[in-house]
Amino acid sequence: MPDTTQAPPDLTAWTCPAPLRDQPKVVMGHGGGGVMSAELVQNIFAPAFGGRVLSQLGDSAALSLGGIRLAFSTDSFVVRPLFFPGGSIGDLAVNGTVNDLAMSGARAAFLSCGFILEEGVEMEVVARVSHALGAAARAADVEVVTGDTKVVEAGHGDGVYLNTAGIGLIPDGVDIRPQRVVPGDVVIVSGAIGVHGVAIMSVREGLEFGVEIVSDCAALGGLVATMLDVTPDLHALRDPTRGGLAAALNEIAVAARVGVEIREKAVPVPPEVDGACTMLGLDPLYVANEGKLVAFVPRQHADAVLAAMRAHPLGAGSTVIGECVRSHPGMVVARTGLGGTRVVDLPIGEQLPRIC
Description:
PurM-like_C_sf; five-stranded mixed beta sheet; Hydrogenase expression/formation protein HypE; PurM-like_C_dom; seven-stranded mixed beta sheet; alpha+beta
C-alpha cells in the first residue's frame, strides 16, 4: 500500500533543464550561447545599443580607425571551479579574448583585465589566478595594459570573476566574417571536440571516467596566422565555446543563409568524451571547447589550409567534417553512420552552465 501520510511534493521548487523562453526573469539558459542567449541579444541589447558594427554579431568587432583595421572584443568569465585540469579562470580570461580576436583574423596586441572579487576570498587564490593570467598572456604574446578591481559583499559572488577586453590588428586583405560563406565551402574543425566542457564537469561534480580529462584551453592566434599564411581568403572562423560545435555551425549557417551538412562520423570526439556524454545523456556536439576552431574555407584552398593546420601543434587533429550547400539554408544537418540524417538545432540554453 502506498504511504499516504507523506506530504505531497512542492512542485513550485522544481526546475526545468530547458527553461521556458517567455521567462519574465533571467535564467541560466540566457547565458548558454544558444537560442535564449540570441533572443536576449536580439530583443533587448541590440535594439538598446543600435549601430551597424554591433549588428554583425561576430566573436569580435571589426573596426576601422584612422585607416587602420582593428578587431575589438570583450568577454567575462565566471567558471566554476576556478582551477581545473588543464587551466584556470586566468587562462580562460586571456585565451578566450585572444581567440575571439583571432576569429576575425587579428593578432591580439593588448588586453584589459577587470577583477570582481568576493569579500572573504583568500589572497592566495587571487595570486594564483593572477599568475596564471600573466603566464597565459606572455604565452599568447599579448600585454595586459590596464584593468580594474571591484569587491562585492560575501555571498554576492563566487570568489573571483574576470572580464577581459582586447584589441588587435587585422592584416590587409583579410575579411573573415560569416556573411562571406557560400555553398561549396569546406568545413574544417581543428581537433577533438567536447574536451573542455567534460573536464569542467568532471571536477565540478566529482565524476571519474577512468582517465583524467584535461581542458583544451589554448590561444589560437598562432594557428590562425598559419592558416592565413596559406591564403588570406578564409571565409569564416568561429571558436565553438558555449553551445559547442552545434551552436557555432548554426550561427554561421543562419548568418550566411546557407545549409551546412556534416558527417557525424567525421567529427573527432575522443573516446573519453564520448563515454562521458553517453553516460550522462549529453551530445558532444553541444559541449563547450576552449582551444578549438571551426573554419569555413573555399574549396580550392581547403587541402592546403588543412595541411598547414595539421603541421601546427594546436591543429594536429584537424579534419574535414562537412561542407556548405544550397539546400536547407540556415539549417545544419548531420549524416549519421546508418545513412540517415538528423537536424542539429541551435541549443535552447546550455547543457553545462558556468564553463567559461
